[in-house]
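Quick log. Single chain, no ligands specified.
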Amino acid sequence: MTVLSNLLAAHGIPALLKYSHALIALIGSDGKLFEWNPSFETLKTANPSVGNVDCLVTPGSRPGFDRLIRSASEQNIPTHGVLSLLIPPDCEAEYDCTFIPAAGDRLVWLAELVAFDPSLAERYHRMSRMAAQLELDHEQTKQTLLKKQKEIDLVVTQAHEVANTDALTFLPNHRQIIGDLQRAVLYANRYRTVLSISMLDLDHFKVVNDTYGHVVGDLILRQVANHLQDNIREPDEIGRYGGEEFLVLLPHTPLAAAAEQAERVCGKVREIKIPIPSADLHVTISIGIAQYRTGQEDWQKFLERADTALYDAKNEGRDRWAIAK
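-> predicted structure:
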């Protein structure tokens, strides 16, 4: 287990994987199995040929299965329903199934037993214990369902965070910050509000990497990201655009205020000291600023103007900011 176990275990709920009697698996949008928990491993041991979840679905439940997995994949929302599954070698049982969108066009599938043939209880004692829990009184059942919902909500939240967070700096990643830029442009067009952006780039970062190694380079990126996050206003948002570049969104902000922030940020980064064996290493950044031209450009052109201003700042000597034309 890698992706699925990290997703759950890293956030304080490893027991959901290790001890839950529910079937939990990471699957593709076509039902292909990638990873699974110990309960599912027991099923796989009984029938090693199971490589796709739909192999377990009865013919009568197949339309419902296709609908649930398609809705979860296409609409990017959790879906839920009761399906009949064929558990090797000859047990047909109803399972309460939930499909949760995860990163990489995959889904987390949770299947909890609802009911099965009592004559097979001795043979499937684990399933029997799950079925017995369904006979708890109303209040206990209510609490169990509430706990399950909280666990599912946590999985969904963490899956979203994993998919949209840069693993090195813990800032919004490229996909997230570009999505936020697109939404900010739509808002500015609709309500005729002011919107500015800043493109930031570490100066001579390739030289730093080549001289001190990527470990020091990663340390610099993390420290710079922390300083940038601490020195932007609460409404503003910063994300890692890629490599050593960062993008800052400044809603309701004209060029003058964006320039003031750029000046402050340049100074704060200039003060950073990166301890290395021989001395303290200092870094600087260059910034390109652009204000959105409402109704005259799309988000790509807007971003391109900020990027051009960034290179103007670098050509003018670095450790400074420039405003897009």
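The first strand starts at residue 23 and ends at 28.
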